[in-house]
Amino acid sequence: MENKIKLEDLKKEIIKLGSKLNRLNEEVDECKIKLISFKKYTGLDMPYFDMLIANIFKNYQITLDTLKEKNRERPMVQIRQVLTFLLTKNTPFTLKDIGVILGGRNHATIIHSRKVIKDFIDIGDESTLETIRLMDESYYDFIMESKDK
Prior knowledge:
By secondary structure, this protein is mostly helical. Helix content is 82%, strand content 0%.
């Protein structure tokens, strides 16, 4: 009897996980649609998101899959936070979209990341500014011009 109960519990959990997977797949599809519409909206040959990921790989040899991991080492966290900041500032993605893109993080994590980077920019943190420059030089130039005013 005990095995039967456990088997029923396992079946229920499998059904729950299947529905969660379906929801996540739908969210990923929504993000892909937004990325395509962003490409059309900006007229860029290479979507902004792809450019950021390419620059991260070029400068740090880190892939998007690596960024999605639950790695809390400072360099990885900073790169992920700067990516989050740039995506919230320069794309039509919602906080939830960005969380999905970065491995299922929730909107509160995205808000926190954005605030941390904004605070570092405000105090002129060189490491943060250099990370931004390596990811998106034009946005870095915009920040520097704003500071001069």
